Amino acid sequence: MEKTLIINADRCTGCKICELVCSMSKHGEYNPTRSYIKVLSNKDMDVSIPVLRIGCDFCAKCVEFCPSEAIKIVTQQEAAVIRKGSKLGTFPIPLIAKSAL
Fold it and tell me: What's the CA gap between 38 and 74, in Å, rounded?
């Protein structure tokens, strides 16, 4: 069954621990530029939104180490149900191409 990551933007603090954990897990170094997850932040609006690069294999290390529990992994069916019944701040994490970052 296909999995996807769900983000609760209201809980994301923009700490970027997910970026560090991902890069260490996949490349053996703490280097956010090599991470498959990126946290886009807008300081003026006080919002942070994690997005995925193509290549993420949904290992869930970001989920495991997220201190605010803003990220979780669910099936695509669960994601659809969550999205339909949730407020604006909860949604599947957008998947973007590496060249867009």
Answer: 19
Distance separating alpha carbons of residues 56 and 49, to the nearest angstrom: 16
Q: From 35, 3, 1, 29, select the one nearest 16 (Cα to Cα).
A: 35
Please report the pLDDT score of residue 17 as a whole number: 96
Cβ neighbours of residue 46 closer than 8 Å, sequence gap 6 or more: none
Q: CA angle, 88 as apex, 84 and 37 as ends, to 5°? A: 95
Provide the pLDDT for residue 75.
85
Contacts of 5 (CB under 8 A, 6+ apart): 50, 52, 56, 58, 60, 62, 63, 71, 72, 73, 74, 92, 93
Domain ranges of the chain: 3-100
Q: pLDDT tens for residues 8-45? A: 878 889 999 999 999 999 999 999 999 999 998 888 88
Model confidence, pTM: 0.75
What CATH number is given for 3-100 in this structure? Answer: 3.30.70
